[in-house]
Amino acid sequence: MRYSRQEMVIGKAAQERLITKRALLVGIGGIGTLTAEYIVRAGINLKVIDKDKVELSNLQRQVLFDIGDIGKPKAKVAEEKLKRINPDVEVEGVVRDFLPSNALGLCRDIDIVLDGTDNLRTRLVMNDAAVKKGVSYVYAACARTIGAVSFLRGRPCLNCFMPSKKEGLSASTAGVLGPTAGLVASI
Question: Which helix (H) or strand (E) holds 149?
């Protein structure tokens, strides 16, 4: 019954496949909190990676967190809350950086890599890991009132679209309205 409305759209067989899948979400901020919630509510297993702690400035757009979470590791708070939202899925919160040295190991048994970060360096590592693992990478970004989403698998990849490797706007440098992050996450 939990997925009955979703099954009306995608079918029972598709739902049965979804519940066997595992997504990796790197970054549990403005985009990541809502993405994580939708993924878990859809019945997809999730691994969340983020090294940061919840800060007061996060609460304006990071919908999974509240005032009682300030100072706690985002990945662990997300794990706890997402397990309460849907105890039928596996949720793992990992408190660490996503780096070239650990990316492939963190992508073990992953079916898709989801972007919840706000920096190009980490995005390029995610892209490279997804290409090497042969899985899709979903690029997502927002700043101010601007958002972008791209679904990439193999080639062309993020490196093809961003050859300059120059950091653009980000929420931490230019600000962001909460609904912009929500819209990007929903896509």
Answer: strand 146-152
The model's pLDDT over 117-135, given as tens digits with 9 standing for 90+, comes to 988 889 899 999 999 999 9
CATH topology for 4-186? Rossmann fold (3.40.50)
CA atoms within 13 A on the CB side of 100: 3
Name the burial class of residue 47, with classes exposed (0-12), middle (13-18) and buried (19+) by CB atoms within 10 angstroms of its CB. Answer: buried
pLDDT band at residue 181, thresholds of 50, 70 and 90? confident
Helix (H) or strand (E) holding 135: none
Q: Please report, in angstroms and rounded to a whole number, the separation of the first and last CA atoms in the chain.
A: 25
DSSP state, residue 69: G
CB 110 within 8 A of CB 135: yes
CA distance 24 to 110: 6
